[in-house]
Amino acid sequence: MVSYDEALRTILDNVSPVGSEQVPLSEAVALVLAETVTTPWDLPLWDNSAMDGYAVRTEDCGQPPCKLRVTGYLPAGASAEGMTVTTGCAIKIMTGAPLPAGADAVVPVEETEETSGEQVTIGAAVKVGQHIRRQGEDIRRGETILQAGSPLRAAEISLLASCGKPLVNVQRRPVVAILSTGDELVEPGTPPGPAQLINSNSIALAAAVREAGAMPRMLGIARDNRLSHLEKMRAGLTADCLITSAGVSAGDRDLVRAVLEELGVKFLFWKVAIKPGKPTAFGIFEGKPVFCLPGNPVSSLVTFEAFVRPALLKMQGRHKLLRPTLQATLREPLTGGSRMQFLRVALEQEAGRWFARSAGNQETGILRTSLLADGVAQIPANSAYESGAEINVQLLGEPL
Ligand code: AMP
Ligand code: MG
What we know:
Blueprint: H1 4-13, E1 20-24, E2 37-38, E3 48-49, E4 53-56, E5 66-74, E6 89-93, E7 105-108, E8 112-116, E9 119-122, E10 132-133, E11 144-146, H2 154-162, E12 167-171, E13 175-181, E14 185-186, E15 197-198, H3 201-211, E16 215-222, H4 226-236, E17 241-245, H5 256-262, E18 266-269, E19 274-275, E20 281-285, E21 288-293, H6 297-315, E22 325-330, E23 334-335, E24 340-350, E25 353-358, H7 368-371, E26 375-379, E27 384-385, E28 390-395
Parallel strand pairs: 5-6, 13-16, 13-17, 14-15, 17-21, 19-24, 22-25
Antiparallel strand pairs: 1-12, 2-11, 3-10, 4-6, 4-7, 5-9, 8-9, 18-20, 20-21, 22-28, 23-27, 24-25, 24-26, 26-28
The protein binds adenosine monophosphate and magnesium ion.
Magnesium ion (MG) is lined by residues 181-182, 246-247, 253, 295.
């Protein structure tokens, strides 16, 4: 049996990005950049006004109030070519319009009074450079501004658009085949008969796959016989990654590992010293990862978080593979079990500090506890914590 750390290291050592593709910028949000982006020009492109007001020469505005003659008008989109602010004059300018020659400051309209269409009174002191956005003050031409591996958020998309890129090279989303196994399962929508159970794992794992940025491919249910397993698994092994749920323990109907081996999957481990999630197996088929997760709905999601999510992020070229953690003070004492435990934890913030307590009954049959959990804490085997001790909690998203 391997430890959690060994198991995760084995997985991450054996997965790599699945490749890149060009997509329109409008479809690139939440994908991962697969190229290094260098700015083709300065941003801003040219000096421009940050306010609606008047472009002036500070030397004309020494002792307010000062009267200046208005000799021109520059709305956004108008060219300043051939326009110059000369001594004793001002040009009316709107936000975003190019700064005319001769001007070294912009006076906001609120600090002026236009006495007639031709004259303006400047009511306040004026500093050189005020309310001017200088060419290149944000980003310089030729700067490497985005690295391959950056997840694209709205801000990155904004920058790529400003660099004039209609298409962007991104990491392809891995296609993840999802297979549930078990004779007791019916698909959601079919009322479960006696001894039947709704296949909630497929759709839950598909949701987790999507949250991790990958594309689920649903394979349905393999029944507890070799032929059904063979047929579904053959289809699953054509994807970039295969996830199965259930049928990996020691039961006499647990066929998953044997059939995958028959199809050529090489297993690197099949038991991990964790709770929940001991019967988790990981193998490789033609360089592609195969995860066999436990059937219990809580266990399958906990092991997805612990093992599959980091792998899917690496397969998308991301560098940060683990969720952020925060330190929290325990509200209650805790004792570890005989294996390292993933404790589902509820967080509360009080006076700027985080406090943690068990989110509820930690038995793997209790999904309710997952609904109340903000994060997961790794509790080492045979450990004991007093109330008030500090623990690290890995967030499962934003705290509820
Ligand atoms: P197994 O590993 O096949 O013994 O399954 C472990 C437990 O998980 C059993 O109680 C199963 O009924 C349950 N289970 C297995 N597959 C699913 C599934 N797809 N959705 C929900 N529960 C499942
Ligand atoms: Mg089963």
